[in-house]
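Could you help me review a protein record that somebody else here produced? What it holds is a sequence and that sequence's fold in C-alpha cell form. I need someone to confirm that the C-alpha cell line plausibly describes how this chain folds. Take the sequence as given and treat only the C-alpha cells as open to question. This is what I was given:
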Amino acid sequence: MKEKCNGVDIVIRHVQRDDVERLLHFMNVLSIEQTYILFQGEQMSLEEESRYVEGFINKAENHMAVKLLVFHGEEFIGLADIITKERAENHVGTFGIIIAKEWRGKGIGHFLMEKAIEEAKKNIVELHIITLGVFSNNPVAKKMYEKMGFKEFGLLPGGIKYKGGLVDHIYMYKKI
C-alpha cells in the first residue's frame, strides 16, 4: 500500500519470507540501541529469525496474526504486528510496534498502528481485544496508545529490564 504520512511517501506491506535478513538486521540494531523493546542487547541469529518469521507467516495464513512493514523508498523504517493468543484467549491479540530511531516522532508510528489495527480487524476473525505493554519511562508511547483508545489495566512494578535497571511495565487494552 503506497501511502503518504505527514508529507512522507511510505509503503506499508505484509511481511514476506524473503524479509528475514532485513528483519534480523533491523532487530539486532535496535537491540544494541536498547530502545523501548524487549531486546536489550541480545543478538538474534539468522536461523532464529527465520524460524520466527516462518511461524509468524503461518499464523497470519491461519488468520491469527498480522505483521506490517513500513518502508521509505528502499529503507526499512518500522514494523507493527498483532498476534492472537491461543485456545480460550484466541480473541485477544498482542500488539507490538518498532520504528527506526531516525523516523520516530514523525507520526509514522501512529499511522502504522492505525493500519495494523485495520488489517487485524479484516484478517483476524476472532479478534475482540488488543493488549500491549509499555515501559513506564516511555510517556510518548503511552500517550500515543491512549490517543488510539487504549486504557491502562495493570502495572507490574519492576517488570522490565531496561539498560541495566528495572522499570515498571504498564499493560493497556482496547476493545475493537
Notes: The first strand starts at residue 2 and ends at 5. DSSP finds four helices and eight strands in the chain. The chain has a mean pLDDT of 95. The two ends are 23 Å apart (CA to CA).
